Amino acid sequence: MPLSNQPIQSETMTMITHPRQTLITLLIYFLSLSCLVSPIAVAQSPSMDHSDRHKQSIERAQSSLRADPPGSANREVALADALLRGGKVDESIPHYESAIKQSPELRPYLWQYGIALFFAGRFDDGRELFEAHRRVNPNDVENAAWHFLCEAKANDIESARKLLLPAPGDRRVPMSEILDRLPGGDGTQIAAAVEAIDHPTSKQSARFYADLYLGLIADAENKPEEAQRFMRRAAETRMTHYMADVARVYADHLQSSSKPVER
């Protein structure tokens, strides 16, 4: 999830100085994600098939991993990211865990791993990961929202509201409004913040994040129809950045969860 002092399109992670080359290389990889979501490159061709895009990304990451025995942590994370974005959640998790085993200091930076843990139903583990991420990225409302979701699923919505993570100073629209919505209420202020944006590209991005997190909140509040409505809308974006792909995975997750179990 992006740093709070970056434009909402950016997907950078906190950069710190660390003596281990693995950490430096991995953080450079995280920074490179922002190139995928510049205002110029946000929209994809309507004819582009997401599954083809993800297949190519996974194949490239697999090839890179095999070419670098025994598989450095940053390449493990790159493959895990490609798998997660392509909806292959169960396949992504072992690669995140392999990276952490190789370089334990990476764990608090891997918010993506926390998202994968949520989709895998490992809510307690996901909650702990987002708590760890807050220590290196304390102003990120998105991190607070995913922590809120995991706590609601692991226990209940009252517990999630009681244990909200602070995320002060996130200036990205509509993040402060999303944070204010977590304790309860409705999406009126979120919608108003989006509508107040004049720049078309910025408004498109803000609307996407509003839909994504209104869907997430509805899921946490056990409102499946509302959650699916917002998440489908988020998933329909033409943007192809990391969280847009997460929205598509989430929409599929909600749809599959709503299907009756065959006997």
UniProtKB/TrEMBL annotation:
Biased composition (Basic and acidic residues): 49-58
SUPFAM superfamilies: TPR-like
Stretches for region Disordered: 46-72
InterPro entries: TPR-like_helical_dom_sf
Protein name: Uncharacterized protein
Originating species: Rhodopirellula baltica WH47
